């Protein structure tokens, strides 16, 4: 550790003694790739699902948004998408406390030119390493200048090289609005991070950012996406605008926001701006951290529970208010059980549910039943009345299901009223590998 610290200090001293341009020219391409790929790992919003299907099997262009492809993202249908995930530069004029690349951070700095990112993307694709590009950046010179460089990467890939693979651009809300909207003409997906769940947290930890400005840009992009889809219905060759929609990311655990506030914020973003995804990223302690940041990261299971709550709203018919009812007095989701089970334990009067008669909406609220299992139940019960054995073939959580369901041969007797029901339905605790 002392040797590594000395190495960083020598690097910082070298950087401060020379100009920014001189420092960058001393790094090889592979060294810069190592620095900027590592700096991009904190951004979770790199899934590539939902885009338009394009390929180059007809001999025209290069790349594809389909099939199996160094960052791996997983689409809802299980496909693994390989993306080159890098920053254009980790130099930044902003000083967000939680960011490892903030202005006051003593990290090695590097940058790519637009042409270098284009060449890297094409070379990695031709070697079958990747299927697309996820490009973000710190802010160098100005927000608009940086945004222009990122747009040039996407434009060159599409126009100069006929690249038809996936492109995700992380846009900069402080840039000129015209530039931000241009990004959607070349990228499959654009995203703008709201950073933190509350205005108070944003003002405290990211004083250079403006929450209202961020929402304003998200709204303009949302309008442009809606207009593009409407135009495509009326005019076949109307240009596409961010066909995979837009997403955002919130940092969990860096400020004092509880899970209930995060759920409410995510619901607001979904309802008002029709975002494709809200990503949650557990705060990770960084070197030379500011005194206003917590000393320890939150448990990773907290991030997982927030994703589960997000799924309940998006796919299971829950409202944000219902998910919030699963939180405790401090507004936190329980870590030992999933949010749907926590909600069911709080509303025992709605159970047990008759598997052979209940509507789909109620079946989706049964702990242990996923969307696929519910679809299979709806299909199978058209032919015959389902028994407990039939249900065990559709789901592996039959033991935790018993208190909440009625089948042709099973009816729980006062099981739903047991005081130890939570303990009986709580799955065995799985320890964290790196906890």
TrEMBL record:
It comes from the Bacteria. InterPro entries: Aldolase_TIM, DNA_rSAM_put, Elp3/MiaA/NifB-like_rSAM, Endo/Exo/Phosphatase_dom_1, rSAM, rSAM_sf, RuvA_2-like. Keywords: Iron, Iron-sulfur, Metal-binding, S-adenosyl-L-methionine. PANTHER family: ENDONUCLEASE/EXONUCLEASE/PHOSPHATASE FAMILY DOMAIN-CONTAINING PROTEIN 1 (PTHR21180), TYPE II SECRETION SYSTEM PROTEIN K (PTHR21180:SF9). CDD domains: Radical_SAM. Residues 82-309 form the Elp3/MiaA/NifB-like radical SAM core domain. Coiled coil: none annotated. This is Putative DNA modification/repair radical SAM protein. Gene3D superfamilies: Aldolase class I (3.20.20.70). Pfam families: Radical_SAM. One of its GO terms (molecular function) is metal ion binding. Its cofactor is [4Fe-4S] cluster.
